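User: Quick one: structure for sequence A, then sequence B.

Assistant: Sequence A:
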Amino acid sequence: MKSPFYIYVFFVFFGLSHSHAQKGSEILTKRPDSTEVVYYIIEGDTLARDIINLDEVILLDKLHFKTENDRRRYLILRRKTRKVYPYAKLAAERLTVMKERLNTIERNRDKKKYAKLVQKYVEGEFSDQLKNLTHSEGQILIKLIHRQTGHTAFDLIRELRTGWRAFWYNVTANMFEISLKEEYQPYEVKEDYLIEDILQRSFQEGILVRQKPSFPIDYLDLSSYWNKKIADN
């Protein structure tokens, strides 16, 4: 049975416009001279650099599973995580824009009108996809919303609408065994650690687009923690 509450969760995240602020981009060119020093030309200025800054790369260990069932469960979790992560990423991108827009609206009546427009937009663009989420996919989505925004879906709804409405939507979600108050806790919950592992591998493989979480996550430290915990057990 599919739950329609996912649609409402996204009412609080998406604005009507797809436009984003355009930032000026620097044009970089590099010239090697006879000493093999690389020069970068940045908007007409020449900077000599003997090193090149690269993005951080995490070397991931090869996955090992104790049983075939463990491997199968991981692959199922990977499929579900990759499916819902783009929604959580988009939610984080839209949240700031929506908050800024609501802050520019003074009258409550106009805010409600704006919310209805958002609802119509979301229903038209995302309802079919979100309605097709299973219960477990929906719960993973709620966790990833917390990872990307730093707030639970419940708190976001309460902040952007009303506490009473958030309460009832949490009750409704619980009827489908989903909690809008769920947090992403990779140090406390093994499934969340596996989700983080899936994300990191998917980022490096180019399957998912990396977006920084709202709070620091040291994957190497996290992985060491769980490897030790599993070994001790």
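Sequence B:
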Amino acid sequence: MKEEDIYKTLEEPSAGILFKDRKSKFFGYAFPISSEEDVKPIIESLRKKHHAAGHVCFAWQLGEKTHTYRANDDGEPNNSAGMPIYGQIQSFGVTNVLVAVARVFGGTKLGVGGLIQAYRSSAQMALEHAVIIEKTIDSNFQLDFDYSEMDKVMRSIKQKGIVILSQKMDLRCSLLISVRKSQEVQTKQMFDEMQNVMVQSRD
């Protein structure tokens, strides 16, 4: 198994956890996400769920090959919430994930050090309670060919266990296929060597 085409993410949203420090309550959650657009509705739903929370701080990371991330302190002192949460995302080595912590103030100020510790612990517990799975990084190709090549193409696809994402049968055949990143070069080469089959990367 080639490690470079594997990444870790969450199978499903985690059940909420509760971390307490000097009567302040920190509710931690972890969610799988596929784009930045997923973030806002989740945060809004947490604000409704924890309407007594003064802050809903979060961090997210997206991308399998290269990562983009954001950390949000939501009014807490600078870098006391979002970055400690993001540090746990890095520590667990997960991506395509959002970790959010809703804080209900308990009347005693924790100080910046106390906040960093509380948000870090809440994020850690949320990820510990999540189901972390491994997925493969895949490459997509489009194959265009005449009907006369159909048997040859389909036989190769079946032999190599290649996934067909979609197919279009008009005057010519067009298939969108997916292979693991580690098999990208040999797959392209295999179809390139077939006469009358056009191969294009579709990443």
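The chain has a mean pLDDT of 88. The radius of gyration is 23 Å.

User: Thanks, that's what I needed.
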